[in-house]
Amino acid sequence: MLEKLSDPANVHIAKPCEHALTLVAALLEQEQQPVVCEVGVGIGATSVAICRLLENRGTYHLFDYANRLDDLKPDLDGLGFTNVVYHCNSRRKLDSYSWSLAQMLLARRAAGESVPLFDFVFLDGAHAFHHDAPATLLLKELLKPGGVILFDDYDWSFAISPTMKPSVFPTIVEVYNDEQIATPHVRLICDLFMDHDPDYQKMDIGYRSHEHRRAYRKRGLSERSPE
Fold first, then answer.
1. Quick check: keyword Ligase in the entry (predicted)?
2. Which residues face 123 on adjacent strands?
3. Three-state DSSP class for 216?
4. Whole-angstrom distance, CA of residue 51 vs CA of residue 59
5. Which are the contacts of 59, defined by CB distance < 8 A and separation ≥ 6?
6. Which pTM value belongs to this model?
């Protein structure tokens, strides 16, 4: 898969997410064996960059379509990265990483383990409410106190997508109504489930007006208000 990074056709997705790298680098100053999660690998730009930062420390969980992870795994194996765990889902219409995350949460509860697992999560999935809303609720439980979740494409909508807008992809109107096409789904999810949750604190990641990404830190147990 990593050969796609040098294809001029992929120039807009060939660069790693600098916010994710900055947050992982900061995490490594505090935790030498972190548990990191990336949901949606694209063509692997951020994945390989995070692997290089981790240098096989901790564990790196990747969630995406099976065919993408099957393509990426040999590349990361070939580079000597052995700390990656792959969570695959099919391309069936209503299958997604949300189901994989749900099974992970159920398994951790059944095993009697501490449910929180991740120190850092980068959510860069479908940017669609019916996948990312349940994923967000599951990731909130799976994130450790003090951990950070970074949402990509906070401002993205189907209406502004060069490949998904109705003028280019007319059948989108058979799947979503006009309001759903115009609304940035990630922003809606953050407003519903993150911005008003007292256990989460919005982080300053450098934006002064228009936000493309948004990050939240889960407050530590000592920081939470008594019930």
1. no
2. 39, 151
3. strand
4. 10
5. 33, 34, 35, 36, 83, 84, 85
6. 0.96
- What is the C-alpha to C-alpha distance for residues 194 and 36, in angstroms, rounded to an integer? 20
What is the architecture of the domain spanning 2-154+198-220?
Answer: 3-Layer(aba) Sandwich (3.40)
Q: Which residue has the tokens 């939470």?
A: 224
pLDDT at position 116: 97
The radius of gyration of the chain from alpha carbons, rounded to an integer in Å, stands at 17
Instruction: Tell me the C-alpha to C-alpha distance, in Å, between residue 127 and each of 21, 58, 59, 190.
Output: 20, 28, 25, 12
**pLDDT level of residue 10 (50, 70, 90 thresholds):** confident
- Domain extent listing, the chain: 2-154+198-220
Alpha helices in the chain (DSSP H): 18-30, 45-54, 66-78, 97-110, 129-142, 178-182, 185-193
pLDDT at res. 129: 98
